[in-house]
Amino acid sequence: MTITHVQLLSVPVADQDRAKDFYTSTVGLEVLADQPGVHGRWLQVAPKGADTSLVLVDWFPGMPPGSLRGLLLRTTDIDADCARLRARGVEVDGPKATPWGRQATFADPDGNVLALNEGAQ
């Protein structure tokens, strides 16, 4: 096998404009692409400099909006990121200590559940 990394992850959303606003203005990701695609609008976002990006999709019938669970975003300052999310009106659970570091969870407007993780010191 010559796989080097995960390139894309599809996030099922109901409204791509609302999702774009949340993932960029609220979470702080950057838009990498926003253009017509083969199946519909190709809306790709990612943390600055990341190898893996998210595609905010509304065109996969088998992926209803809000069905994503377990997307883990790595952070270097979980307390500051949780405070920023809360200041922007997002309900955040945590941070809590885990064996692999500190973790907090929150949901996007569609109910997709994401987590922030700050690795163990």
Count the DSSP helices: 2
Helix-strand sequence? EHEEEEHEEE
The largest sheet has its strands arranged as 1-4-3-2
What general form does the structure show? Answer: globular
Return residue spans where pLDDT drops below 50 for at least 5 consecutive residues.
none
The tally of strands reads: 8
Question: Can you walk me through this structure?
Answer:
This protein has 121 residues and is α/β, with parallel strands linked by helices. Helix content is 17%, strand content 40%. The protein contains two helices and eight strands, in the order βαββββαβββ. It has helices spanning 16-26, 78-87, and strands spanning 8-12, 30-36, 41-46, 53-57, 71-74, 92-98, 101-107, 113-119. The strands form two sheets. It has a four-stranded mixed β-sheet, with helices on one face. A four-stranded mixed β-sheet has the order 5-8-7-6, covered by helices on one side.
Question: Which key phrases capture this entry?
Answer:
4-stranded mixed β-sheet; 40% strand; alpha/beta; 2 helices; 121 residues; globular
Lay out the secondary structure.
Layout: E1 8-12, H1 16-26, E2 30-36, E3 41-46, E4 53-57, E5 71-74, H2 78-87, E6 92-98, E7 101-107, E8 113-119
Parallel strand pairs: 1-4, 5-8
Antiparallel strand pairs: 2-3, 3-4, 6-7, 7-8
Short description:
The protein has 121 residues and is of the alpha/beta class. It is 17% helix and 40% strand.
